[in-house]
Specification:
The chain is of the alpha/beta class. Helix 3 packs across helix 4 and helix 6 packs parallel to helix 7. The protein is globular, with a radius of gyration of 20 Å.
């Protein structure tokens, strides 16, 4: 079968490998249907690392994915403890916590120090035609969710966890810096939460326009002026109650802190290239900011599926480009270059 294997920075190759074995107890074999390209995949592809995580050998990327169950092992129970069957379409949570450590026991499986993660070295991910996964990580998809939408449930789960950490209140003023897929999903959730002024900022005008379509009341690129000054103008100098940094976590972290009001909250979602957090201590101290750092998600797939099925969150509107597995290298390069007004690229394997 075909796989897209990363050999080094910007060195993605299509290889042929043997078929997966039969699924064991608690496992299923899925035929991959669609895989999303995530910002963290782009970090790995471009620089060979994300934060302090790197690969010491070849790796198959891909952690936003869904597929069709084609074989089941014994006791193959899904994430809601229901039996899985052949032919079901499932979205797959890429993280497998140990479920036994202190953090798991306290309800924080996203912080499990013993976890494995599909698409993060040394565990291969979803850019392959067929793959064995844990049944417990699978969540069946209703017919109303497309294959592409199924890949974005992981992204929506991160957005849900981010908004949870923000402790949003009805009538809050909120800023979102970065209008990629996670930022645009956060914007949709903030609109649902009943915020007042919802500011969105991005370097690219087509992403700002999408933010407006999805609920931002004020959306700007650098051509519109200095971002902090724009917030001050619209809030009479008060700032926002909560600022979400959902970009590449460079100078945008300091900018988010400057936008936040005294006593406000700063939610850090983006991951920097150089593994450094740059924030002026005086800004955070004098304002008495509360900083929350997002680490993946918790048990968010059921909420994500329900919100999507109810039509309260739009997933497919974020998908701008489709590629085949043979085009994966081109897909990553286009995404890195922000070419052709790309927002979300999907690798279709079905």
């Amino acid at each position: 079968m075909k796989v897209a294997r990363l050999y080094g920075a910007r060195d993605m190759r299509i290889d042929t490998t043997s078929e997966p074995p039969e699924p064991q107890e608690g496992e299923v074999l899925i035929r991959m249907c669609a895989v999303g390209i995530c910002g963290s995949d782009l970090h790995m592809y471009e620089a060979g690392r994300i934060g302090d995580a790197h690969y010491d050998g070849q790796i198959i990327l891909g952690h936003e994915f869904m597929g069709e169950v084609i074989a089941v092992g014994e006791n193959a129970l899904d994430g809601l403890h229901q039996p899985l069957s052949i032919g079901q379409r499932v979205a797959v949570d890429p993280e497998s916590p140990c479920y036994q450590c202190e953090l798991c026991e306290k309800g924080h499986p996203n912080l499990c120090p013993n976890h494995t993660f599909y698409g993060l070295y040394p565990t291969d991910g979803a850019l392959q035609e067929r793959m064995i996964v844990s049944a417990r990580n699978c969540f069946p998809l209703p017919d109303t969710i497309t294959n592409a939408g199924g890949t974005l449930l992981e992204t929506l789960g991160v957005a849900i966890h981010s908004v949870d950490l923000g402790h949003i209140r009805i009538g809050d003023d909120v800023a979102v810096i970065g209008c990629g897929p996670v930022g645009l999903l956060i914007i949709q959730l903030l609109k649902l939460a009943g915020v007042n002024r919802l500011f969105a900022f991005d370097l690219h005008d087509w992403r700002v326009e999408k933010a407006k379509q999805l609920g931002a009341t004020h959306a700007f690129t650098p051509d519109d002026g200095h971002f902090q000054e724009l917030v001050n103008t619209h809030t009479s100098g008060r700032g926002v109650d909560v600022a979400f940094e959902v970009a590449w976590a460079d100078e945008s972290v300091q900018l988010a802190a400057e936008m936040a009001r005294y006593g406000g909250r700063l939610v850090l979602v983006g991951i920097p290239n150089d593994n450094r957090l740059t924030l002026e201590h005086a800004t955070a101290r004098r304002k008495g900011l509360t900083l929350m750092v997002v680490r993946r998600m918790k048990h968010s797939y059921p909420r994500a599926i329900d919100l999507t099925t109810a039509g309260k969150v739009q997933l497919d509107t974020l998908v701008t480009h489709h590629f085949t597995l043979d085009e994966v290298d081109h897909a990553f390069e286009k995404n890195l270059a922000y070419a052709d007004n790309i927002i979300k690229g999907i690798i279709d394997l079905s």
